[in-house]
Amino acid sequence: MTGASVAENTRKLQTQLLPRAEKWARESGAVFEADKTAFIHFVRPMQPRPCPASHLVFCGETVALKESVKILGTTLDSGLTIDEHVSKVAARAIGKCIALSRITGIRPAQMRQLYIAAVVPTTDYAASI
Asked: Could you tell me the pTM of the whole model?
């Protein structure tokens, strides 16, 4: 949803969207997992950040406002920068490179193959965003 303010968006979500989702869940038999439900406001860089005290109530569970969420393996923050995602990916790639450096007795071509198989997919996932 879009709106003029964070408070307006939160109110719209709580009063309009979530009741429809809860109704659909009851009718279809779908189950929402509270620990996998996230609540975040995406704001423009010059706008003030949302108040961390705001939350939603969904299916009887409180869903707290988060500063970043993970969607399909990509971490997005409220400013839609991917700084946190890039740092996590870089840390994973460095860890894999360190693990590869402990391997001894193989030729450079084999090491390159291991690098391509283990490190490159880590760094390439969601790189297009």
From this structure: 0.65
Residues belonging to the chain: 129
- Number of structural domains the chain divides into: 2
Of the chain, the percentage scoring pLDDT greater than 70 comes to 93
Place of tokens 């391509």: 116
Question: What does the block give as tokens for 100?
Answer: 């590869």
Asked if 114 contacts 103 with a C-beta cutoff of 8 angstroms, the reply is yes
Torsion, Cα 87 92 95 96, to 10 degrees, reads -140
Q: Is residue 44 part of a domain?
A: yes
H-assigned helices in the chain: 6-12, 18-28, 83-101, 108-118, 120-124
